[in-house]
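Task: sequence design from structure.
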């Protein structure tokens, strides 16, 4: 079994800091996407929970697509919200994206290291040929 690391050179976080982890790692048919926040080019994109949720999920989808995975390949999602009042709004966005292929999920509330409302990571699976 081989391991492929995507974005192993690390991305750019807030304040231009280097992020010392891969954006995703593939092993044994699984793709593990690192937690994504509503950021573009290392900067937080301001907005409400709906806008921030869409961008955090889209960042996951972009990384997945780069590795050859699709929404239907997502088997588990982890969600961190900074306020429990965001739960219903997040669910609406989640259903828009995953409605046809709903994965298993955990959603929790806690502080985040970056000043955002949401962080999302995904685990995907595709049987190897």
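Answer:
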């Amino acid at each position: 079994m081989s391991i492929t690391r995507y974005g192993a050179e690390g991305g750019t976080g807030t304040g231009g800091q280097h992020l010392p982890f891969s954006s995703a790692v593939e092993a044994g048919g699984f793709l593990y996407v690192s937690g994504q926040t509503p950021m573009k080019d290392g900067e937080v994109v301001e907005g409400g929970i709906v806008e921030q949720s869409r961008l955090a999920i889209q960042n996951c989808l972009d990384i997945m697509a780069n590795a050859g995975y699709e929404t239907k390949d997502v088997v588990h999602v982890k969600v961190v919200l900074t306020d429990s009042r965001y739960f219903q709004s997040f669910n609406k966005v989640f259903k828009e994206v995953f409605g046809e292929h709903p994965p298993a999920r955990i959603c929790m509330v806690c502080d985040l290291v970056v000043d955002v409302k949401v962080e999302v990571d995904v685990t995907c699976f595709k049987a190897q040929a």
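The chain is about 25% helix and 30% strand.
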